[in-house]
Amino acid sequence: MLAGRREDETLAAARAANGMLDHITLSSLGAAVAVLLLIGLARRRSALTVVAVGTVGVSLLLAEVLKRYVLPRPDLVNAPERLLGNSFPSGHTTIAMSVLFGLTLVVPYRWRGVAVGVCALWATFVGAYTVAAGWHRPSDTIGADLLVLAVAGSLTALLARSGRVRPVADHARPLRALFVIAPLCGVALAGLGCGTVLLVDSMFRLPPGDPAVPRLAYAGGHVLAAGASAAVTLVLLALLHRVDLDRPGRPDGT
After folding, report:
1. CB burial class (10 A; 0-12, 13-18, 19+) of residue 252?
2. Which helix (H) or strand (E) covers residue 184, if one does?
3. Please, are residues 218 and 124 in contact by the beta-carbon 8 Å criterion?
4. Are 95 and 146 in contact (CB under 8 A)?
């Protein structure tokens, strides 16, 4: 995959990926957390605010601990300098997905689809950007997706045990299905399906010396990273389907 990335060095994809990832900084992360805090405090939902902000903070803390001390990756011959250290899970993917999940949790129930629709496709493609930039292996981004899902699910379970979760008799929302669920399903199915096919082709169907092998592996890594992020986002939405995270018997909005 990295060999294929070097062959694509002159293409716009790598330059665009670097430009996009350069905007994920401590300042932008702080601004995103501030937005989560403002939404939660404006809604007067202190426990929900802690869960949303905690999804970001705990995910990043665990990612750094795992990456630096627990899950070392083997060095790759002739790999970029960024991949010579530990890279599992991806920090940039953790940031993007945890902010998305935190926003999904803290907004009122009726605005959940809008929040996901605004942020989901950007967040789900951050993992693909890290692959295009040569910053991470695809498995680094998939590991980050699963880590954030585990943290968000665990904190939401604690919220449920405190009695602050209730079912909602929701009506059909065709616009949410059309503009949020359908695009995410398309990215997930296309990414996971095409990525698997491309990786199988590059690993088993072509001879090792074939010049198409690196290109197929590089393309497969891209779409697999995006597909996994979209699929994990759909899993979170499925777990929260018709579930209001406000206090029982309270209105779901501000």
Report:
1. middle
2. helix 182-200
3. no
4. no
Q: Is 105 left (phi over 0), alpha (psi -120 to 50) or beta?
A: alpha
What is the radius of gyration, based on Cα positions, of the chain? 19
Asked whether 185 and 234 are in contact (CB, 8 A), the reply is yes
pLDDT by residue, tens only, the chain of 254 residues: 777 877 765 555 666 677 778 788 888 999 999 999 999 999 888 899 999 999 999 999 999 999 888 887 777 777 766 666 668 899 999 999 999 999 999 998 888 888 888 888 888 889 888 888 888 889 999 999 999 999 999 999 999 888 888 888 777 777 777 778 899 999 999 999 999 898 888 888 777 778 788 888 888 888 999 999 999 999 999 999 888 887 654 444 43
DSSP letter for 67, please.
Answer: I
Q: How far is CA 104 from CA 30, 172, 173, 241, in A?
A: 18, 19, 17, 12
Q: How far apart are CA 97 and CA 217, in angstroms?
A: 24
pTM: 0.87
Cα dist from 195 to 113, 132, 210, 223, whole Å: 27, 14, 19, 5
CA angle 30, 138, 52 (to 5 degrees): 30
DSSP string, 216-232: HHHHHHHHHHHHHHHHH
| Residue 174, number of CB atoms within 10 A of its CB | 7
Selection from 246, 253, 20, 249 nearest residue 133 by Cα: 20
Those residues with Cβ within 8 angstroms of residue 28's Cβ, 6 or more apart along the chain or in another chain: none
